[in-house]
């Protein structure tokens, strides 16, 4: 199926197509490129022009370039003045030609999980297009738009930021029918004066609303007034969600070791739903998703049922059982991989999940199952980074954790604030803990690994996986 013809892509980008081709997709990476894709030669860490020949060899229909890279068939080049603005124009053209209802998702925590929940519940109610991975930045949003089929019914666009002024242009490019904010938390504080500055930036997503668009925002934050005023300034139809008296509210929650059972009132409708993983934060994301479904006038009961099919993606809270002995399924431990990102809000949520988990006794060397946390630095926290790390020691959920291993200079502040009986190891870098991975875990334990991506605690996740085996049936959940 053709997504872009040479003529359509040339008209959209203002470029010159050297031949007559059709592209079924759009790619910026030769490693994931599929035959028939239009390869976009972006400049990032590497210059995409260096990979044009490889992309064409792998079957790319054509390449979007700002110059002839040499050695390529001129008939397969779409030459533009500058590649990134051309990609933005391609995304804008894709948005202009579709009747899809476009939902934008931003927030300090939970963007990707919420986006994936929306994908799951919307795909049974219409043809749904959503961003891959965390494609939420200055190239990820236009790339997601450029990949959108013209006949899509729904599109879910994740929009992120690292600094002030980034969200509004992306939201305007996406021309949103509904814009939602998951939450506002102390993330990227190094780039903002305070939490209110972060809230103002998140609220800029409402500037991308189309006429008649709708806004959804969390109502129970200390900065909700900023979000509400921004929503009212950009649309006449806004709603709030949360655990209090809001338009859409979480009314009951029960966490077990491997599930979340919750009840919500969504626009006056009582809804019961179950998630296949534990987490209060996941439940609140689900309430936001059901709110979107109700605001779009879709089938709420079907959406609540389909939430049970959602699973967190790797590095964002996925839970798996790992065998220490491939022939004895009892000799196993549970691993919670939440190593993709961290800030105080998401770390507290992860600790709550760990606290609700049930270790199993009588299985390993120690004979007592433990709750173990491996915590890496929370980065970009600004001038208060030391205090924010130390303050984690006061979290009630942490009292139920048997052992805490800390990774990085910032987590040293938490380590020193912990009572001696909870202190595991402190290391300056993740590779140091990887070398001792064999001594971190025992049968019956539940281990959480959480940290900012730059702390590289994902290396500890990899080490624990290498020490163990997946369940024989391939079901690691």
Automatic annotation (TrEMBL):
<feature type="domain" description="Mur ligase N-terminal catalytic">
    <location>
        <begin position="25"/>
        <end position="69"/>
    </location>
</feature>
<comment type="pathway">
    <text>Cell wall biogenesis; peptidoglycan biosynthesis.</text>
</comment>
<dbReference type="InterPro" id="IPR036565">
    <property type="entry name" value="Mur-like_cat_sf"/>
</dbReference>
<dbReference type="InterPro" id="IPR036615">
    <property type="entry name" value="Mur_ligase_C_dom_sf"/>
</dbReference>
<feature type="binding site">
    <location>
        <begin position="107"/>
        <end position="113"/>
    </location>
    <ligand>
        <name>ATP</name>
    </ligand>
</feature>
<keyword id="KW-0067">ATP-binding</keyword>
<keyword id="KW-0131">Cell cycle</keyword>
<dbReference type="GO" id="GO:0047480">
    <property type="term" value="F:UDP-N-acetylmuramoyl-tripeptide-D-alanyl-D-alanine ligase activity"/>
</dbReference>
<dbReference type="InterPro" id="IPR000713">
    <property type="entry name" value="Mur_ligase_N"/>
</dbReference>
<keyword id="KW-0963">Cytoplasm</keyword>
<dbReference type="Pfam" id="PF08245">
    <property type="entry name" value="Mur_ligase_M"/>
</dbReference>
<dbReference type="GO" id="GO:0008360">
    <property type="term" value="P:regulation of cell shape"/>
</dbReference>
<keyword id="KW-0132">Cell division</keyword>
<dbReference type="GO" id="GO:0005524">
    <property type="term" value="F:ATP binding"/>
</dbReference>
<dbReference type="GO" id="GO:0009252">
    <property type="term" value="P:peptidoglycan biosynthetic process"/>
</dbReference>
<dbReference type="Pfam" id="PF01225">
    <property type="entry name" value="Mur_ligase"/>
</dbReference>
<dbReference type="GO" id="GO:0051301">
    <property type="term" value="P:cell division"/>
</dbReference>
<dbReference type="GO" id="GO:0005737">
    <property type="term" value="C:cytoplasm"/>
</dbReference>
<dbReference type="GO" id="GO:0008766">
    <property type="term" value="F:UDP-N-acetylmuramoylalanyl-D-glutamyl-2,6-diaminopimelate-D-alanyl-D-alanine ligase activity"/>
</dbReference>
<feature type="domain" description="Mur ligase C-terminal">
    <location>
        <begin position="334"/>
        <end position="452"/>
    </location>
</feature>
<comment type="similarity">
    <text>Belongs to the MurCDEF family. MurF subfamily.</text>
</comment>
<dbReference type="GO" id="GO:0071555">
    <property type="term" value="P:cell wall organization"/>
</dbReference>
<keyword id="KW-0133">Cell shape</keyword>
<keyword id="KW-0573">Peptidoglycan synthesis</keyword>
<dbReference type="InterPro" id="IPR051046">
    <property type="entry name" value="MurCDEF_CellWall_CoF430Synth"/>
</dbReference>
<keyword id="KW-0961">Cell wall biogenesis/degradation</keyword>
<dbReference type="InterPro" id="IPR035911">
    <property type="entry name" value="MurE/MurF_N"/>
</dbReference>
<dbReference type="Pfam" id="PF02875">
    <property type="entry name" value="Mur_ligase_C"/>
</dbReference>
<protein>
    <recommendedName>
        <fullName>UDP-N-acetylmuramoyl-tripeptide--D-alanyl-D-alanine ligase</fullName>
        <ecNumber>6.3.2.10</ecNumber>
    </recommendedName>
</protein>
<keyword id="KW-0436">Ligase</keyword>
<dbReference type="InterPro" id="IPR013221">
    <property type="entry name" value="Mur_ligase_cen"/>
</dbReference>
<keyword id="KW-0547">Nucleotide-binding</keyword>
<dbReference type="InterPro" id="IPR005863">
    <property type="entry name" value="UDP-N-AcMur_synth"/>
</dbReference>
<feature type="domain" description="Mur ligase central">
    <location>
        <begin position="105"/>
        <end position="292"/>
    </location>
</feature>
<dbReference type="InterPro" id="IPR004101">
    <property type="entry name" value="Mur_ligase_C"/>
</dbReference>
<comment type="function">
    <text>Involved in cell wall formation. Catalyzes the final step in the synthesis of UDP-N-acetylmuramoyl-pentapeptide, the precursor of murein.</text>
</comment>
